[in-house]
User: Fold this.
Amino acid sequence: MSDIHANLEALKAALEQTAFDAVWVLGDLVGYGADPHAVVDKVQELQPQFLIRGNHDKVCSGLESTKDFSLLARQSAQWTLRTLNPETRAYLQSLPLGPLSFEDYLLCHGSPVDEDEYIMSPYQIPALLEAQNAQVCFFGHTHVPIIYRSDGAQVVECPVGESLVLQLKEGRRYFLNPGSVGQPRDGDRRGCTALLDTQRKVVEFIKFDYAIDEAARKIREAGLPRPLAERLYVGR
Ligand code: ZN
Assistant:
């Protein structure tokens, strides 16, 4: 999972979708949403096998300034920084910078070479394939579930749309974004995660509904910018 963004309702719903043995988190636990403490507690409870930081975890815990953020991102980061208790702030500061490598898999927030890079086009993929040798690179940051598949000669972009099941094939390499748990931006208000079966080499994308009214109400009541509540309903 990736990009939970302090949305507790979405995180709880994501965890109810399916059985799993381990959790991999690609960063951005906080920022935008109104529940940074509860989300961080829940993630810690899950004892993720792998967990890396995202750019919002870095900025919202004060490791980097908000100057490169858009207005809404900056306002929510400042709110989060003011709100965080010292333990949660220290925990976020301690999260490792990606990428992390495991067997044939690589985990990063933005891209394998830059946690702040947005992968939004197949034209970015060839250079990123050359920069590392994992068969599958899981990334987040754009909040859009997507698959880029390479057979060596060309890169094909496969939008996820409705739920999708992907069989990983030998000789092919993949860049794969499981979408955002707590602030989707693919025009679909539902949250999204991906389930990886490491034995069958199958990835299943899972879209899920959650209590948006509750998450939006908390954002408004916290005094966070109202567009952060409204965007949850449109998935943008
Ligand atoms: Zn994010």
Remarks:
- The pocket of zinc ion is lined by residues 3, 5, 28, 54, 56, 141, 143 (CB under 6 Å).
- The chain has a mean pLDDT of 96.
